[in-house]
Design a protein that fits this description.
34% strand, Phage tail protein beta-alpha-beta fold, 9 helices, 3 domains, alpha+beta, 397 residues, Jelly Rolls, 19-stranded mixed β-sheet
């Protein structure tokens, strides 16, 4: 396909907002070539000759014009005088936008999203300079005798025996507890801890499965049973698939609440630096107890605990457990909440420069993508900008 024909097709797809990220990048690459400038000028002039209802397309043209130098902009402005007078109202508005875009033609546009109103041009050139890899499967198991085992480096097979419980690392990397002989010390405890940039799974002696998010810990009796109940203490975030056992209720304790279940799937986010603790129920039922106040959650509901009170709302449970499925999924989230997720998973420090944006962000990306891809999606809105130095991410508006 000839360059001019391909450029025309890409330009039209851009105006229709149907360009993929790869096609948008290719379009931007074309605009860096001197031989394509005449083709670009004709495309923009042609696109000008439209009805006022095409206002959003005019905004897209202005963004593209941000790749053109001042001389070319002057040529286009002069050529645009030939547009019929009936279009002048739209033209004046477009030229005002285009003038701003031409002044901003110093940024290299990697990719961006087209919304219904003008956006700032994103500069992603500083993000990928110092690439940071995503987190991994790993944790440290602290046994009752104080011995610490790095599970990322441990070979599969038996790790230890405590109080009649056999502890092994499975072939798929999961920590598994199996009841052997009768427990001799029911008060012996283990702690499974993930650092920043780590996640892990544990199969408890009753068959319950727990997914542990980054910067989290789970403490439990080796036998799991305490005073006739299955009890674990959570710090950070964990997703629970609790095995049914009506004779032994399952209790999750955090610093701020206690959650009691018989058999269910639920997620608890209880990070010390989060103002709100969230409990999200996927199936079954749970009872939350906070300072003498008890509430029952139904599937599809989320309880938010803050300032000692409980607020229950219907929610999209997929958002709450996206991390367990190795995804970042946010919907109308503030920048601070997104950056906390990034801090924990990529093991970085976040520093804000100047005023924080009030914009809310939505998006989805794999947790195993490099940090640049996650940040570029946010930066492409033009509402936040990032620079990475070492393991520090600087955020500006």
């Amino acid at each position: 396909m000839k360059t001019a024909e391909q450029l025309h097709i890409l330009f039209k797809k851009h105006l229709d907002n149907t360009c993929s990220l790869e096609e948008t990048q290719l379009l931007m690459d074309y605009f860096q070539l001197d031989e394509d400038q005449e083709v670009l000028k004709n495309l923009i002039i042609g696109a000008l000759e439209v009805h006022d209802e095409q206002y959003e397309k005019d905004l897209a043209i202005a963004k593209v014009l941000g790749k053109v130098d001042q001389d070319l902009f002057a040529q286009i402005q002069q050529s645009a005088q030939a547009v019929p007078k009936g279009k002048h109202k739209m033209l004046r508005l477009w030229l005002k936008i285009a003038a701003v875009a031409a002044v901003l033609a110093v940024a290299y546009l990697g990719f961006y999203f087209l919304n219904k109103q003008p956006e700032k041009i994103a500069d992603v050139s500083k993000i990928a300079v110092n690439e940071i890899k995503p987190g991994r499967y790993g944790a440290v198991l602290t046994l009752a005798n104080g011995r610490k085992v790095s599970l990322a480096n441990a070979s599969k097979g038996e790790i230890g025996r405590e109080s009649g419980i056999v502890i092994t690392k499975s072939a798929d990397g999961k920590l598994v507890y199996e009841v052997g002989e009768k427990a001799s010390d029911p008060n012996a405890t283990n702690t499974l801890s993930t650092a920043r940039g780590e996640t892990y799974q544990v199969r408890l002696p009753d068959g319950s499965l727990v997914y542990l998010n980054a910067a989290s810990s789970l403490t439990y009796a080796t036998s799991l049973i305490q005073n006739g109940k299955r009890v674990v203490t959570l710090s950070g975030e964990g997703y629970f698939e609790v095995a049914k056992d009506k004779q032994h209720p399952f209790i999750v304790k955090t610093d701020r609440q206690e959650v009691e279940v018989l058999g269910t799937h639920f997620n608890i986010s209880s990070y010390a630096d989060d103002a709100i603790e969230k409990t999200t129920l996927l199936e079954g039922s749970v009872k939350l107890s906070v300072s003498g106040d008890s509430r029952i959650l139904k599937p599809g509901q989320q309880a938010k605990l803050y300032r000692g009170g409980i607020q229950i709302n219907e929610t999209d449970t997929d958002l709450a457990v996206a991390w367990k499925n190795n995804e970042f999924v946010v919907e109308s989230e503030h920048i601070e909440n997104i950056m906390k997720m990034i801090e924990r998973w990529y093991n970085v420090e976040v520093v804000y420069i100047g005023e924080k944006t009030n914009q809310r962000f939505s998006g989805k990306v794999s947790r195993f993508d490099k940090i640049s891809k996650v940040l570029e999606i946010v930066e492409s809105t033009g509402e936040a900008h990032f620079e990475i130095k070492g393991r520090t991410v600087y955020v500006s508006k």
